[in-house]
Amino acid sequence: MSGADPAVSCLGTSALLFEAPGETTLVNQQRIWALARTAGAWPEVREAVPGVNNLLVTFAAPPRCIDPLAARLQVAWAEAVATPLGGRVVELPVVYGGEGGPHIGDVVAHTGLSVEEIVTIHSAPTYPVYALGSHPGYCYLGGMDPRIATPRRKVPVISIPGGAVSIGGSQTGVSASDGPSGWNTIGTTEMRFFDTTRDPPALLQPGDSIVFRVREIRR
């Protein structure tokens, strides 16, 4: 299989992982969303869950042979058309720096930009939600400006609070709950991303977008 071809692999006896070729872009992700809708309508499929440049397909019962299903995914991918989902745009007020952004100095040191420049660049885009994962309610976002890309931390932090706004490599994200992280936390926001009393429990879904608004910059 060439580097331009998608890859399909087994996960146990009742799931397949489809991995799309090419770079992670909004257009590629929109094709993943289209593939998820197509595969999710197949009668033998229990769930089709989009990831970043991939799709997890689970089955109600273990199939006798995965080869026909893998082939169907390949064909469906070739026919998939990038289609926006028309989701919501959610604004998140962020306090940058200070106690809630302990690693913004590391981003300054790596990029050579000032705190004000980093905040301006980080808060400028509208970030599309590519997929949910990592922990309940967490959003994988696209669209971060490469000027503020910063490598993940060599030593992860044992725990960061929910609402922590961080940069890891070429991505940015907001922690949906308390937990460990290897990303650089540059600020914090007050938002409940996951609530079991809601339907659906996750605040955001693929196709929604996040806009970071500067509430304050602390030293």
Description:
The structure is a single chain. The termini are far apart. The mean pLDDT is 94. The strands form 3 sheets. A 7-stranded mixed β-sheet has the order 7-6-13-5-12-9-10. It has 219 residues and is an alpha+beta fold. It is built from 4 helices and 13 strands.
β-strand amount: 25-35%
The string of secondary-structure elements, in order, is EEHEEHEHHEEEEEEEE
User: Whole-number average pLDDT?
Assistant: 94
Helix content range: 10-25%
Number of strands: 13
The description of the largest β-sheet is: 7 strands, mixed
What is the rounded distance between the termini?
A: 52 Å
> In which order are the strands of the major sheet placed?
7-6-13-5-12-9-10
The number of helices is: 4
> What is the C-alpha radius of gyration, as a whole number of Å?
19 Å
Overall outline: elongated
